Amino acid sequence: DLGEAELEAAMAASMVKLDDGDLVKGIVVSVDRDEVLVDVGFKSEGIIPIKELTIRNDVAASEIVKVGDEIEALVLQREDKEGRLILSKKRAQYEKAWNVIERIKETNGTVTGPVIEVVKGGLIIDIGLRGFLPASLVELRRVRDLSPYIGKIVDAKIIELDKNRNNVVLSRRRWLEETQAEQREEFLVNLKSGEVREGVISSVVNFGAFVDLGGMDGLVHVSELSWKHIDHPSSVVSVGDKVSVQVLDVDLSQKRISLSLKATQVDPWQQFADAHKVGELVYGRVTKIVPFGAFIQVGEGIEGLSHISEMAGHHVDSPDQVVTSGEELWVKIIDLDLGRRRISLSIKQAAEGGEVAAEYQEAFGEHAYDEEGNYIGSFVFSDADFTPETEAQAAWAEYAHEAQIAAEAAKTEESASSEVGNTEISE
């Protein structure tokens, strides 16, 4: 029949011509458990088996496509043994993704995708194809439990690409390093010496403590943790502590930040200097006896030196002839050098009396002594654990050296004078 022949010819002319490997577009007409039917304008609907629908495993077809969706697929077989058109959405996506991935790799770009599986040794990322992210490259430090990453969208760098082996290896760690390097650079440039920042103690080590400032860690050296001498940083701070720190220095070349915790606290030396003056009597406790005198605690974290020449009105061969370690006594301030953190004290001059410092007037008033003159007050040193090994003693090292030189010079001069005197007498 001519009419039927013409109709068949017209249909054949309008029908899409397909070959294996072609990319086609079509409309989803049916979604079943094992396959999806797609109208691509061919003589029969194309079939996408469930395994050819997506790169993800154990996912229902209905989670990937819905009836009415327009999708792209690759022709696997124009006709199988049963005359069916077999398509693959997964491979169409794969071919397109490879072209994109190769361009990203060439330009050192970044890929982004959800974590879809935890496999042996790492994670699988959906970047249009299956990208492998080794466990050692997930974070800056190795992660043991990878399960919390399922479903998360991550950024990564491509470190290995081999289409023949269908191999794509990713590194989120490299992306983090590059991103954080830029952030650190910007953070450092905006950080200024002298400003005070809030932070959290991230780690405590023998030489100090690291503080997370929100963009980078800075170091508080042990000498900047407290105005008092400390045996170990852990006696002052713990991991997780919130602290206010002052920026001491920003080293852009080394990318290091030096911080100070004590700079944000009251300087006990400044506090002492503001409250006292030369000539006042203060109460102290002997913390250490040295050949040239005795160190005496006169406040919390504050030590001064009573030189051997200021310990008694008579000649003293050794300081322990006058005082013992731990002894409490009155001393007079004869010099106060805040800049060098030195206080010179005199036991000898205190015995002559003088004005008592304000903070002791209540504790050592007449009511603080019994009829026999014994002290019955309640004054105690607030710094009971004060150690004799303080920075104040170190600050006196130069003084001690000078004092020793002066003493030797005095002896030499005295000896010379004695020899001259003896010569004159003999004459």
Give the SSE layout.
Layout: H1 2-14, E1 23-31, E2 35-39, E3 46-49, E4 70-77, E5 85-88, H2 89-106, E6 111-119, E7 122-126, E8 130-134, E9 153-162, E10 167-171, H3 172-190, E11 196-205, E12 208-212, E13 217-221, E14 242-251, E15 256-260, H4 268-275, E16 281-290, E17 293-299, E18 302-307, E19 328-337, E20 342-346, H5 347-350, H6 358-361, H7 391-395, H8 397-426
Parallel strand pairs: 3-5, 13-15, 18-20
Antiparallel strand pairs: 1-2, 1-4, 2-3, 4-5, 6-7, 6-9, 7-8, 9-10, 11-12, 11-14, 12-13, 14-15, 16-17, 16-19, 17-18, 19-20
Strand content: 25-35%
Shape: rod-shaped
State the low-pLDDT regions, or none: 384-389, 423-427
CATH class category label of the largest domain: Mainly Beta
Annotated CATH homologous superfamily of the largest domain: Nucleic acid-binding proteins
- Strand tally is 20
Amino-to-carboxy terminus distance: 165 Å
Per the CATH scheme, the topology name of the largest domain is OB fold (Dihydrolipoamide Acetyltransferase, E2P)
Oligomeric state of the chains present here: single chain
**Helix/strand-derived class?**
alpha+beta
Number of domains: 4
Helix content: 10-25%
Number of helical segments with 4 or more residues: 8
What value does the average pLDDT take? 83
Q: What's the architecture of the largest domain in CATH terms?
A: Beta Barrel
Structural Rg: 42 Å
Major sheet: size, sense and barrel closure? 5 strands, mixed, barrel
What is the H/E string? Answer: HEEEEEHEEEEEHEEEEEHEEEEEHHHH
Biggest sheet, strands in spatial order? 1-2-3-5-4
